[in-house]
Amino acid sequence: MTPAVTSASRMMALIVASALLVAPALAQQADDMLGVPGPISFQEQDYVLSWTSRPNPDYIKQEYVPQGQTVETYSEMILIETVVGAITPIQAAALQVQSLDARKGTDPVVNHQIMQNEASGEVLLDFVVSDLSVDPVVVEWNAYRYAALPGSEGVMLFAVSRRGYGQDGATQFMSGLGALRSEAISALTAQPLPEISIAQ
Length: 200
What we know:
single chain; 200 residues; alpha+beta; Protein Transport Mog1p, Chain A; eight-stranded antiparallel sheet; 4 helices
């Protein structure tokens, strides 16, 4: 493995380790850094840009939620992320899978499935995680679509996230997850990827 790949992989490992069930502690700025100010329309729902973060020059994350929801307590979210560096979609997805597998000892809900489109090089990872130690408990389903970053080495992520809260809400969420998952994945794979313009 080349030093560039190692560096990018380490950065991705830090990203995925902090990505699961972690919402911003405080509302932060929502300045568009990717040329995608929104709103983003997905499954007949509009999502507005609500939070952005650039923890280092090569990694940008933007979160979009429906009007009236917040990134701290959302039920529905769209995420767009970019990582610049010598890393591919399958490598990025594999690092996320490693992070999910590491949760299995403490998270009874965690589960994942990964699919790769050989023709396009895109990867789709869908997974379920939970946090039963908080009140109310949280169950979260995500579908991550990884693609090569246009015009640069790296990866872009276009993702959908759904949550259920509380014992009753989590149970209801899980019972309806099959239909939700199927419809959302079909919509996600058909969704045109946004045109990215990374702020310098």
